[in-house]
Amino acid sequence: MATDDAGIAAGWDRSAAAYDDVLDANRRGAERLVAALPDAPYREVVDVGCGTGFASWAMARRAGARRLTGVDVAPAMVERYLERLGGLPGVAVDAVVAPADAMPLPAASADAVVSAMALHWMPDRAGAVAAMARLLRPGGTLGVLCSGAGADGEYRDLIAGLDPPVPAELVDAYARMQAAEGELEDHARAAGLEPVDAWTERRRRRMPPERFLARKRATESALIAHLPEEEREAMWRRIAAAVHAAAEPGGFAFTFVKAYVVARAPGPAPPGA
Ligand SMILES: C[S@@+](CC[C@H](N)C(=O)[O-])C[C@H]1O[C@@H](n2cnc3c(N)ncnc32)[C@H](O)[C@@H]1O
Question: Where do the domains of the chain lie, and which CATH numbers do they carry?
Fold first, then answer.
């Protein structure tokens, strides 16, 4: 089961090229997270589980970031991050390949730390939030967005009922990887931060089956990267047939849930904020 950082990184490396096209919903989620941060501008920003840089991009465009540091376990994601953000005028951009709980970055060096749709991939969520908090200057702000409890439940139930069955890790991942806003607040408090805002977005969405499936392949490939390719492809064909069969005229209907927390390190806001 690919729950270790190396397995997750291998899976995300494989999805890096398709990511921006099929995960546009994550771009919009990152923008909503950044729009909710109080006290912008934030000059020095760390983006944890940065992927191709949706949250960093929003921090530069909307929150005044002048120095961005991306952190991700997947080297292909870090490469894309640097390509995508490297040309932003007036912004210094850097990135490191590292897991969130071992970031080689100095303590108390960031005005804001953001993490969008990545915490649920991390094996120790409390430890990852503590590592993010360590990077904040006094008065600095943490903003986290991750998959919320019940997200894509219809799809989870659909694949759980397939015969022959899909790998258990694909089904089990749903309960294991989703967080409620209260859990995020608890992690922030345990890390010595003061929660400012925590909320959950819950929507019923419909999407053309092919688009929904492309999104699932891009995210779930990270969970089954250890399976032989032939086995993975046969499984995706079975899943695709089931999603098409369950689709309504308006598309495949699913519950979209995201949990957010914004928290602040004790102390006066950093100068410039
Ligand atoms: C769904 S993508 C989100 C990317 C980006 N933040 C966004 O909003 O689009 C999840 C990212 O988290 C990274 N990731 C997973 N586990 C990690 C860990 N333990 N430490 C750092 N990054 C991790 C993955 O490699 C992947 O790039």
Answer: 5-152+172-204+256-264 (3.40.50.150)
